[in-house]
Q: What sequence folds into this?
């Protein structure tokens, strides 16, 4: 069974853990000095926060799978969706060992597809990830901060 993944960059990990723990009525399953993760069953979501993003806010979305057959199924969906698929392969990221690929959706939001195969003692260095992994870097995206731009209307 697949699980939606949401990763949010935060400035204050302790404050954010308190907020999301209250929101989800659940403590995180993983807590590190720069990272926390909730593996929720209702709704079925892998929700992660970290201080590793360049700006607070949505970092990326994803689909986590439970086995390699599901991973290959999702990889086929990425190819059918079109766009530039970045096949990262085996990597260590977010204190986990995984196989993953990345794609940007039409709105410019990075999506990660991955199968976690074990734990890692390090966060990982991020090498090999999609160059546009952080959603806020997209200058033309709706609701992304624009330097010295004067908003003329609300887009969202």
A:
């Amino acid at each position: 069974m697949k699980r939606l993944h949401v990763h949010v960059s935060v400035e204050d990990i302790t404050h954010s853990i308190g907020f999301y723990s209250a929101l989800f009525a659940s403590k995180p399953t993983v807590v590190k000095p720069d990272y926390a993760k909730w593996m929720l069953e209702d709704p079925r979501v892998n929700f992660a926060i970290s201080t590793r993003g360049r700006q607070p806010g949505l970092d990326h979305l994803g689909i986590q799978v439970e086995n390699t057959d599901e991973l290959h199924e999702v990889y086929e969906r990425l190819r059918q969706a079109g766009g530039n698929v970045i096949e990262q392969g085996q990597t260590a990221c977010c204190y986990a060992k995984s196989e993953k690929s990345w794609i940007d959706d039409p709105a410019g939001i990075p999506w990660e597809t991955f199968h976690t195969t074990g734990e890692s003692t390090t966060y990982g260095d991020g090498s090999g990830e999609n160059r546009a992994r952080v959603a806020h870097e997209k200058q033309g995206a709706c609701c992304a901060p624009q330097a010295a731009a004067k908003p003329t209307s609300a887009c969202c």
